[in-house]
Amino acid sequence: MIKSPVPDFGSIHVFYTRADQISDPCLLKQYRACLSPAEIQKADRYMKPSDRHLSLVSRALVRYVIGEVTRQDPQSLNFLTNEHGKPFLVGLPDIHFNLSHSHGAAVCALCRNAPVGVDVEDVGRHTDFSIAKRFFSFCEAELVSRAPEAEKRKLFFDIWTLKEAYIKAVGRGLSIPLNSFSFNANEAGIQITFSDTGRVEPTWQFFQWRPESGKIVAVAGRSASPIVFKHFWCVPFVGIDPNSLIF
């Protein structure tokens, strides 16, 4: 394991951890010690032990990777949320981050001076694919509906995670209707088109990563210049796996 590299102005770093594989009591005690009282209270409110554990590790992941990048004590970091609930760092306006967790996995995306959003999903979970008709754009819902059964699940979660990552990057949550924009993936990459204009918005850039079987991560960032996405496996307060660095 090595320490986290510092994202430059043209990159987004994505850190993935399996909370359900972290059980060292000393490490968990360290995680709890670095959290704020509000974060501890939030984690403790979950009824299921697995949910409490995932919340604890997820918040420790955020504090760890930001502490590595800023060279500040993770416990000293202060967070607030905007009117839609998106968290941001107090006193560090150039550091943008976003967190997502699902079914034992957590992921944190970091970048400098650009909004970022991330989503992780367990593609094996029970899903009613008919909800695409309610939440996806017409063309996306048609793609899912007509897809062969063997491809339907992958296509659904490809679109779902991209939509979640985008609205989290914008920071307005579900005040943005999920059917007001569409995604298209081709040889040029992943493109977003807005229903009100019908135009592709090239400043929004997207990345998807399958860190392991059954998990998918989607990342959204906005920049007029090309963004380099780098992804890593990570254990908070231990380090990142140097074999997972992708440049």
Automatic annotation (TrEMBL):
Q: Where is the 4'-phosphopantetheinyl transferase domain?
A: 115-210
For this record, the Gene Ontology CC terms, alphabetical, are:
cytosol
Q: Which GO terms describe its molecular function?
A: holo-[acyl-carrier-protein] synthase activity; magnesium ion binding
Q: Extract the coiled-coil ranges from the record.
A: none
Domain 4'-phosphopantetheinyl transferase N-terminal as annotated: residue spans = 30-108
Gene3D superfamilies this protein is in?
Answer: 4'-phosphopantetheinyl transferase domain
Which keywords annotate this record? Transferase
Tell me one Pfam family matched here: ACPS
Which Gene Ontology biological process is one annotated for this entry? lysine biosynthetic process via aminoadipic acid
Q: Which family does it belong to?
A: Belongs to the P-Pant transferase superfamily. Gsp/Sfp/HetI/AcpT family.
Q: What is the recorded name of this protein? A: Phosphopantetheinyl transferase
Its source organism is Desulfobacter hydrogenophilus
| Taxonomy of the source species | Bacteria, Pseudomonadati, Thermodesulfobacteriota, Desulfobacteria, Desulfobacterales
